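Lab notes, practical 5.
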Amino acid sequence: MSSPAGLDMGKRVVFTDLDGTLLDPFTYSYEESLPALRALRREGIPVVFCSAKTRLEILALRAELGVQDPFVAENGAAVFIPRGYFNLKLEERAQELNSLLVVELGARLEEFKWVIEEELVKLGCGYSLFSEMSAEEIAEETGLTVEMAGYAKAREYSETIKIDGGRKLAVKALRALESRGLSCTAGERFLTVTSGGVSKGRAVKVLQGLYEEVYGPLLTYGFGDSYNDLSMLREVDVPVLVKRPSGNWIEADLPVLLRVDEVGPRGFRRGVELVLGLKL
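Output from the prediction step:
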């Protein structure tokens, strides 16, 4: 398959959401995505995970899948780059963290967690914070294994909140937190809160700049399924939206957008097949 109409073929890079896109929205399985991941690896195309998940969650998944490319954690609050990956001097732009370099785009959780708690107390609603729940409690709420739930608890730049009292109260909480300058995204069951100005799109732009420094012109692809993926999809050349478990797509007003008629990892696999023209 040739490059999409009007786009020059450059170094190809894939940015992808995890839950509900690369991973099954209910079981978190990546089995259906494996043929696409193998094809991308075979072609030397980087796969950048761009997720609300924590650094530890993504590191565990990367190790299982053998993916060694940079990644974006906690909805864009931090970009993690394997040391030496770009062969660039990044000391002035990134901090060292074990075998990784990290570009922090958001404040650390301890700097704004008090604002979250203050606003939730004002609302008078019951709530649970992932950073304070046990791994067993998170596993029960999410269906994650206890080990992965422990990684999900390790929030560094964001907080995931379960609001008791239904959708209306969750919307009130979201608006109250946004009024304090925080960035909020609402999932099916939880709110995720970061410091203001954080988004997946901003993080993608940082990585695009680094790839361009090394490779020159890029051709970038983005895969997502939810509203917090839209900022990422707006930054790439070829945005791909997979179906939600409900059987439809989120509303997305993008000038160019491929909607894939499959859910989760099947949608990711089909999208890779369609837009990158790879034999799976």
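Observations recorded by the TA: The first helix runs from residue 34 to 42. Residues 11-105+199-276 form a domain with the Rossmann fold fold (CATH 3.40.50.1000).
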